[in-house]
Structures are given as C-alpha cells and as structure tokens.
Amino acid sequence: MDNETPKIRKPYTQRRKRPPHLLPLETSGPVVIFITVCTNQRRPLLARPAIHELLRAAWDSAKLWTVGRYVVMPDHIHLFASPAVFPMESLVTWVRYWKSHASRNWPFPVERPVWQTDFWDTQLRRAESYSAKWEYVRNNPVRAGLADRPDAWLFQGEMAKLPWYA
Predict the structure, then answer these.
(1) Domain boundaries, the chain
(2) What is the DSSP string of 124-147?
(3) Which terminus has fewer CB within 10 Å in the chain: N or C?
(4) CA 68 – CA 79 distance, rounded (Å)
C-alpha cells in the first residue's frame, strides 16, 4: 500500500476564483438582482459626494438595467437592479459599462485603478428576500460605525422603484 496521503479535493465553490454570474431566471415575477461591487484592494474611495454623484450618473447612462435602492460604502457598493430591456441583456456587460464610465470620469486620477475586476450578484426570488436584504444593506453604515442610524448615511438612495417594494 502506498504511504502517500490522498488528496482531498475542495468543493467547487472553494476552488473557483470568480463568481459564476448565472443568467437570471425568468419567472412569473419580477427579476431583481442584488449586486455587490468592491474597489480595487478594498480601498476606501467611494463615500464622497463627488463620487456618489458620479456613480448615479454612470448608472443613469447605463440603460440596459435599472438601479433601484443602493448604498455606497467607502470600499464597496450594494445595489438592486432590474432589467430595463427585454430580452434581458448581460448583467456582466452592464456592470462593466458603468464601472468603465465611472473610471473614465474619476476626478482623482492617482486613485486608479478603481474597481476589483469582478462583482457578486444574487437573484432575489421573493418580496421577503428583497425587504430583508434591503434592511441588512441599509444598516451597513451603522454596523461599520459610520452613522448613528441608517437614514443619517448620505451615500445611499434610490434611482427607480423596483418591483416587490415593501
């Protein structure tokens, strides 16, 4: 018998280097995707009035998906989005577009590159998921010690009302 230790293979989710970005499932209900985008090396570049407005302009110019509620933290963004055109266009293409738009117009050149290459996304399947996820997200600045209450955080908002509104 061989004395070598057998190799234990990690589960697929632990081996992959990037999130899979599955195509949204078209159901009888609305398509709402929860997205998290981080800055390169998680640098705290985002929570500033000029950047907040730049991001809103980038999302407004990216017409394939519609941004609903969002929270901009110093080193990452949480947002909810729904397709704005049907058939749905690629979420990856849309995120790449608005990140590129924001980078090209970034007012502080020394801070480039701004974004991590990829992002995380999850399709919400129920109104309860949307409400619960929003409550979690809007409390991020409070948990991080950046605000006393969720409404006190300046870098949040809503670009459009998405379905499943609570």
Answers:
(1) 26-146
(2) E-SHHHHHHHHHHHHTHHHHTTS-
(3) N
(4) 7
pTM of the model: 0.82
Contacts of 32 (CB under 8 A, 6+ apart): 68, 80, 81, 82, 123, 124, 130, 162, 163, 164
pLDDT in tens, 112-123: 999 999 999 999
How far apart, in Å, are the Cα atoms of 41 and each of 112, 114, 117?
A: 11, 9, 10
Q: How far apart are CA 67 and CA 81, in angstroms?
A: 4
- The tokens for 119 are 């992002």
- The encoded tokens of residue 106 equal 């970034």
> What are the φ and ψ backbone dihedral angles of 97, each rounded to 5 degrees?
-60, -55
Do 45 and 51 form a contact (C-beta atoms < 8 A)? yes
